Amino acid sequence: MRILKLAGALAVVMAAGACYPTTDLERGLVGAAAGAVISDVTGGNAATGALIGGVGGLVCDDLGVCK
């Protein structure tokens, strides 16, 4: 069952990333959603995952990661 959840989380992240967000807000929202899903599926705190993912999405362009 855990493999199925991880595969579902991966599918959600890939689908969100396929839209290729272009603004900081869009990247932050995609990062927050992905962080919450992955954290929840792996047994972590979804709110913490959303916070970390959202911050990562906001700063990825500034760090040159998502150019």
Helical element count? Answer: 3
Give the uncertain stretches in residue-range form.
none
Number of strands: 0
The N- to C-terminal Cα distance equals 36 Å
**Integer-rounded radius of gyration:** 12 Å
The average pLDDT value, as a whole number, equals 81
Q: Helices and strands: which structural class?
A: mainly alpha
**N-to-C SSE series?**
HHH
- Please estimate the helix content: over 70%
Care to describe what's here?
With 67 residues, this protein is mostly helical. The chain has helices spanning 2-18, 24-41, 46-59. It is globular and about 35 Å long. The model has no long low-confidence stretch (mean pLDDT 81).
List the helices and strands and how they pair.
Elements: H1 2-18, H2 24-41, H3 46-59
Helix pairs in contact: 1-2, 2-3
Summarize the structure.
The protein has three helices and no strands. It has 67 residues and is mostly helical.
Descriptors for this entry?
3 helices, globular, mainly alpha
